[in-house]
Structure to design on (112 residues):
């Protein structure tokens, strides 16, 4: 298990709670440059499909955030290339994305 700073550990709690509350396969949480947090689950409708990271990034952008300090993705254990590209477009390179299982055990980190 990867050791996280306390602020990133809070993101794990938010992502886990959101995933559990919605019954989704994956949940994500993002902390913006102002310290605000956004938590989301994936959306899987016949007419709309958005990843948990995609929803978090969209929420941050629509709230006026200018970038991200860190993200957490729980559930699938894999960060999609399109999600990393969205994080990179929004927040630039070097943003840590901590990845873990549905129970909140973080196994590793990738960067945008």
């Amino acid at each position: 298990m990867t050791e996280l700073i306390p602020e990133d550990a809070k993101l794990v709690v938010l992502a886990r709670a959101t995933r559990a509350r919605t019954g989704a396969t994956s949940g994500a949480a993002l902390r913006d440059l102002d310290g605000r947090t956004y938590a989301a689950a994936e959306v899987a409708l016949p007419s709309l499909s958005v990843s948990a990271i995609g929803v978090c990034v969209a929420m941050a952008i629509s709230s006026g955030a200018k970038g991200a300090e860190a993200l957490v993705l729980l559930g699938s254990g894999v960060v999609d290339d399109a999600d990393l590209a969205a994080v990179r477009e929004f927040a630039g390179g070097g943003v840590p994305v901590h990845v873990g299982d549905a129970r909140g055990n973080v196994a590793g980190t990738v960067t945008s």
